[in-house]
Amino acid sequence: MRRVVVTGLGAVTPLGVGIRRTWSRLLEGHCGIINVNHRDARFKDQPCQIAAVVPKGSRDEGGWMASEWLSRGEGRKMATFAQYAMAATEEALGDAGWKPEPFEQREATGVCLGSGIGNFEEIYDTVVAYEKGGYKKVNPLFVPKLLINLGAGHISMKYGFMGPNHAATTACTTGAHSIGDAARFIACGDADVMVAGGAESCIHPLAIGGFARARSLATDFNDSPEKASRPFDADRRGFVVGEGAAVIILEELEHARARGANIYAELRGYGCSSDAHHMTAPKENGEGAYMAMKKALKQAQLPPSAVDYVNAHATSTIVGDSAENAAIKSLLLGPDGKQKAADVNVSSTKGAVGHLLGGAGAVEAVFSILAIQNGVMPPTINLNRLADGFDCNYAPHHAQKRQINVALTNSFGFGGTNSSLCFAKLEK
């Protein structure tokens, strides 16, 4: 199996447009969650009126204006999640220095990018228009803008990438599955370079209302949105929906070396599992999460003691955070792991960016890669009080400088789907 490395990063997040701005604001403890009543009056009738939203504004200021990234024709054809993905891809390809023109290079470059929900607003608006005006009110672009694989499709068309064109849609595990699947395409020889990641944009009253009715969302912080997402905290009440995209450029090791590419880290392991338990809730002992992490370390050929940092899925739900915490401790403590819980370094970045659903795994993979490169553990903001059993090092409030050679990043989704990625510093 061929070795796979990371050579480029790009992101559009609630902390800003561009990976450098997002990363610096994350380490400084900023939060991208706001009250969204101004976006739609229907939010005022809902128990949850907050979301993590990509900020508007100029590109130079770290804000989002579609016209700065896309032509009018491109923007008209793309759902918002695909627009975010396109911008993140442009940044990542530029970062990697990979914009191939020869046929052989484009044939060896593929795309693996998905979304959890995709173009929710388009579905809603079209249903309403159809009910009022019938067939002629259906936009000819309705289906192309609806399909989740069109995020990957638009990227491949713009850059002429003719390698694997793949789109995972596995709820909140989508981003991690996309990256792991892309790595396997390279490892198995189907491509030399892959654009991989996840994207989401479904900040709509009906979508938020659906999650709220499922009792998944934080509903006690409408007047203080920046405090709503509080992973691991004893007073956590649910997650906050976010939007954005993240893309990483994966590359076969010798291919990257031959062209002198900057290598951030190596993707050493990818593990998947299923809870086989419940539509929305994990097993309380975190068995599914444990199996995914264990498989990632097995593929990486690393013992639990080698893990320096875990970027947790931890969305700020009562059951979910507890189950993942139990799984992490079960895996990393013991004869082959750490001696005490305080030596287990875990943080969740969802306090800052919310839960990007299908984009979460990709954004958090980027954060884990940068943690390795920069030797810093991102903070878990809003962590004021720990409940019983939460005795690891969660980097509360402030980033922590430390040597990070190996990092796990976890993603779990409705339906009991789990994934864990293992990144490591490249060994000479």
UniProtKB/TrEMBL annotation:
GO terms for molecular function: 3-oxoacyl-[acyl-carrier-protein] synthase activity. The keyword Ligase does not apply. The keyword Transmembrane does not apply. It comes from the Eukaryota. The active site is at C172. Pathway: Lipid metabolism; fatty acid biosynthesis. One of its GO terms (cellular component) is mitochondrion. Residues 1-425 form the Ketosynthase family 3 (KS3) domain. One of its GO terms (biological process) is fatty acid biosynthetic process. Signal peptide: none annotated. Belongs to the thiolase-like superfamily. Beta-ketoacyl-ACP synthases family. This is 3-oxoacyl-[acyl-carrier-protein] synthase. It comes from Penicillium cinerascens. The lineage of its organism: Eukaryota, Fungi, Dikarya, Ascomycota, Pezizomycotina.
